[in-house]
From TrEMBL:
UniProt entry tagged with the keyword Electron transport: yes
Name assigned to this protein: ETC complex I subunit
Keyword check for Lipid metabolism: no
Major location (coarse): membrane
Species of provenance: Falsiroseomonas selenitidurans
Length: 108
């Protein structure tokens, strides 16, 4: 597949499932579409292909910057807009466990 007809996907990096923080979740990623189907290696049984573009991920601060980069190189791109998720997080303090007039049950 020639580089001029390359298809890329632009999407926002998801929040890590391993931690509760949102660091790095604001970045936009540009990833290449697979150029050829994966096939099983006869020796190891692992899937793989000769397409090295699948290993490349570019990071951008905004979707517009990623789209401009792809357009400047003549690549076809699609932007996956993430759904708006409202974080309903209440700030808590350790001292609230001992406050007077607490209505919640004590857990221990």
């Amino acid at each position: 597949m020639s580089r001029e007809s390359q298809t890329v996907r632009i999407h926002r990096q998801p929040k890590s499932a391993m931690q509760s923080g949102r660091a790095g979740a604001g970045e936009w990623l540009l990833e290449f579409a697979p150029g050829e189907p994966k096939r099983l290696d006869p020796l190891t049984g692992w899937p793989g292909s000769g397409d090295t573009q699948g290993q490349v991920t570019l990071r951008f601060p905004s979707a517009e910057a990623a789209a401009a980069y792809a357009a400047a190189r003549g690549w076809t791109y699609e932007v996956a807009v993430p759904p708006v998720v409202k974080a309903d997080i209440k700030p808590k303090a350790y001292a609230d466990n001992f406050r007077f007039g607490r209505t919640d049950n004590w857990s221990h």
